[in-house]
Amino acid sequence: MNTTFRGATQQIFVDLDRNRAEVLGVAVQDAFQTMQSFFGSSVAGQFTQFSRVWWVVLQADAKYRINPEDFNKVYVRAKSGAMVPLSALIAVRYVAAPKLLERFNGFPAVKISGNPAAGYSSGQAIAAMEAVARETLPGGFSYAWAGQALQEKESGGTSAIAFVAGLIVVFLLLAAQFEKWTLPIAVVLTVPFAVLGALALTWVRGLENDVYFQVGLVTLVGLSAKNAILVCEVAIEHVRHGMGMREAALEAAGARLRAIVMTSLAFGLGCVPLAIASGPGANSLRAIGTGVIGGILASTFVAIFFAPFFFWLLESLSARFARRKPPAAEERPA
């Protein structure tokens, strides 16, 4: 952790006696302007030369503004025209004050920056900072995030939107492909198994549900839906050729088992280097790889048993509802 705030630095505090300045006929604004010009700087004007604009800046030379005794060398013109020494109007003392005081959102602020310790994610570090701030900050104090932490906080809720949007896109595409509403529902119902598998493996490894893990969840939408599509596609073809729904679901599960296992394991093994990554950026790689591997394992070895069941259940309900639907009234000739 690091901060730009240094509260123990020493500064010179100049206290202007306004009553004495009024008695001596010196305007308070003139006194402050004199100190600003000699010990700080002030812009007197500008001029153009050599096709450039040059600024005219008033400021005392460095050797005449180093020590507090240099205030004795400066004079201020009074309203009467007399020159009054600045030292007769001010009192100088040393105080402890921060050397740099920033402002954030219009309020005096202290900037704190840092990095998470080894083995911890940025989400854990942000949560720890918020917990410490809530416990230790006195009344009237608050905190706000900036930079990368702010972007991470603001993008935390967008992953859920992306996940739901992925489900909707998969559902609509499958509805257009199969020209039915039941089969896409059967496919989408297998996605929660992949999500549970990803959460379980992430919890076992002691990782956090951060933004990188949520990126892996969006990837699992397509991967888990792929396994259910392979089963439902074969099953619906068997039904169209006259096979019963239960037999068609079991036949499709057996026919597509090898293809599902081979493709899923191939992708899962490809994610192993991410799950065991080390070095810079290893936390993000491990979060993505662990989530994807856990989701693939659950989708392959758990959801594969539920995809035929969802197909049989939804198709049976659809057929039963179609039989109960009253036929349309035939038009009688005039």
Structural account:
This protein has 334 residues and is of the alpha+beta class. The protein has 2 domains: 80 residues, Multidrug efflux transporter AcrB TolC docking domain, DN and DC subdomains, CATH 3.30.2090; 167 residues, Multidrug efflux transporter AcrB transmembrane fold, CATH 1.20.1640. The chain is built from 12 helices and 10 strands. The strands form 5 sheets. Strands 1-10 form a two-stranded antiparallel sheet. The protein has a two-stranded antiparallel sheet with strand order 2-7. β5 and β6 form a beta hairpin. α8 packs antiparallel against α9. The longest helix has 30 residues. It is rod-shaped, with a radius of gyration of 37 Å. The N and C termini lie far apart (89 Å).
Give a brief rundown of this model.
The chain is of the alpha+beta class.
Please identify, by name, the CATH architecture of the largest domain: Up-down Bundle
Low-confidence stretches: 328-332
Structural class: alpha+beta
CATH topology of the largest domain: Multidrug efflux transporter AcrB transmembrane fold
Portion in helices: 55-70%
The spatial strand order of the largest sheet comes to 1-10
Order of helices and strands: EEHHEEEEEEEEHHHHHHHHHH
Bin the strand percentage.
5-15%
Could you tell me the mean pLDDT? 82
CATH superfamily of the largest domain: Multidrug efflux transporter AcrB transmembrane domain
Q: Could you describe the largest sheet, including whether it forms a barrel?
A: 2 strands, antiparallel
What form results from the Cα inertia axes? rod-shaped
- So how many helices? 12
Task: Give the total of domains.
Answer: 2
Q: Whole-Å distance between the termini?
A: 89 Å
Radius of gyration: 37 Å
The CATH class of the largest domain is identified as Mainly Alpha
Q: Give me the count of strands.
A: 10
